[in-house]
Design brief:
Elements: H1 12-30, H2 36-46, E1 52-56, H3 58-73, E2 78-80, H4 83-86, E3 99-103, H5 110-113, H6 116-121, E4 125-130, H7 136-140, E5 143-146, H8 162-182, H9 186-191, H10 197-201, H11 205-208, E6 217-219, H12 224-234, E7 238-242, E8 248-253, H13 254-263, H14 272-275, E9 277-278, E10 282-283, H15 289-299, E11 303-308, E12 311-317, H16 318-324
Parallel strand pairs: 1-2, 1-3, 3-4, 4-5, 6-7, 10-11
Antiparallel strand pairs: 7-8, 8-9, 11-12
Length: 327
C-alpha cells in the first residue's frame, strides 16, 4: 500500500458527495440509451435456447461476473467466461445455441476482439456494451448497447467509476426486464436460492411437509392404542384421523392423551373417534412456510395439517421450520 501524507483538513465528505453526484448524472444519461436496441437485446435473450455468456476484461470483467450472476438468479441461464482464457480453450464452453454479451468501455479490448471472428464464423449472436457504437466491437456486434457517461468520478479520468456503474445498471435493466416479461415468480427465485436466507423465506409448506410414509394418520376404526403407536412411530406428537378417501375427521395429540389419562379412560377399549379433537388447523400446500409459522404462533400449536379442500396431503411441524431455517 502506498504511503502518503494526508492534506491537512481534507474534506472526505465533500469528495464523497461529489462522486455520488457525478455518478448520478451519468446514470441519468443512461436512460436515453434504453432504446430499440435494448428491446431487441431482450427479445433475442428471451428466445435463446442456450445461455448468455458474459465476457469482459479488467473492471468490465468484474461487472460482467455480477451481471451473469444476476441473470442466472432471475431466470436467464448465464455464466461468465474470461476472454483471455477463452482464447486458450475456454471458448469451447460457448455453443451455437448461446448468446455472447461482451463488455468493453472503449470497444477496443484486444482479448475480446480476438474472439469476434470465431464467434461470427459460428454464427453466435453478439451483444456488446461500449461507450462508442463506432468502435471496432460496436460495429461488429449484432446489437450495441451504449453505456457512455459524461465523465468518470476519478479526477484523473482514468479509474473506471461512473462507467462501471452505468454498465452494472444496464445489466440490471436487462435482467429485470426479462424477469418481468417471463412472469418470473418468487417460487422460481427460491429454486435458485435454496441455501440463502432469501430462499428460506420463500419456501412453501409443500417443500418441507411430511407426506407419504412419514405422514401420521389412522383410520376411523382405529383404537386409542393404534393412535398411540402411530404417534410414537412418526414422532410428530400427533396423528390425524381420516376416512378411506383421506378426508380429515379430526386430530389426536400428546395433549389430548394427557386429557384422556386425567379422565381415567380405558386405553384398550377407547375408539379414537370418540376422543379425538374435531377439525385441526389447516393450510394450503402453496402457503409460504414463514406464513405457516405465523399461523402456528397465533394458534399456539406446533403442527399444521396441509390440505387440498378437506383431503390430507401432509403435516408440517415446528421442528421442520427450525430444520430448514425458516424460524
Amino acid at each position: 500500500m502506498l504511503r502518503f501524507q494526508l492534506t491537512p483538513g481534507f474534506d472526505f465528505q465533500k469528495v464523497g458527495k461529489e462522486v455520488v453526484q457525478i455518478e448520478r448524472e451519468g446514470l441519468a444519461q443512461l436512460n436515453y440509451y434504453i432504446d430499440t436496441g435494448f428491446s431487441n437485446a431482450c427479445k433475442i435473450i428471451a428466445a435463446c435456447h442456450g445461455k448468455v455468456i458474459v465476457m469482459g476484461m479488467g473492471k468490465s470483467g468484474h461487472i460482467g461476473c455480477k451481471i451473469a450472476a444476476t441473470f442466472a438468479s432471475t431466470g436467464t441461464s448465464s455464466f461468465f467466461v474470461h476472454p483471455a482464457e477463452a482464447s486458450h480453450g475456454d471458448l469451447g464452453m460457448v455453443t451455437t445455441q448461446d448468446i455472447v454479451l461482451a463488455i468493453s468501455n472503449s470497444g477496443e479490448s484486444n482479448e475480446i476482439l480476438t474472439l469476434v471472428p470465431v464467434l461470427k464464423r459460428q454464427k453466435i449472436q453478439l451483444i456488446c456494451m461500449t461507450n462508442n457504437p463506432e468502435s471496432t466491437l460496436g460495429k461488429a456486434a449484432d446489437i450495441h448497447l451504449c453505456i457512455k457517461v459524461p465523465q468518470e468520478a476519478c479526477p484523473l479520468g482514468l479509474t473506471p467509476t461512473t462507467s462501471t456503474t452505468a454498465t452494472l445498471v444496464m445489466g440490471d435493466a436487462l435482467a429485470i426486464a426479462l424477469l418481468k416479461a417471463r412472469g418470473f415468480t418468487s417460487k422460481d427465485f427460491a429454486l435458485s436460492h435454496p441455501g440463502g436466507a432469501l430462499g428460506r423465506r420463500l419456501l412453501q409448506v409443500q417443500d418441507i411437509m411430511h407426506s407419504g410414509d412419514e405422514l401420521p394418520y389412522v383410520s376411523t376404526s382405529a383404537s386409542l392404542r393404534d393412535a398411540l403407536v402411530e404417534i410414537t412411530l412418526k414422532k410428530l406428537g400427533m396423528t390425524v384421523i381420516c376416512n378411506h378417501a383421506m378426508h380429515i375427521l379430526g386430530i389426536f395429540t400428546d395433549g389430548d392423551l394427557r386429557r384422556v389419562c386425567e379422565l381415567g379412560m380405558n386405553l384398550n377399549d377407547a375408539k379414537i373417534t370418540s376422543i379425538m379433537t374435531s377439525g385441526g388447523v389447516r393450510v394450503p400446500p402453496n402457503m409460504l412456510a414463514v406464513d405457516a409459522l405465523n399461523v402456528m404462533q397465533s394458534h399456539k400449536i406446533t403442527a399444521l395439517l396441509v390440505t387440498n379442500d378437506n383431503q390430507l396431503l401432509g403435516v408440517v411441524h415446528m421442528h421442520d421450520m427450525l430444520r430448514t431455517g425458516v424460524v
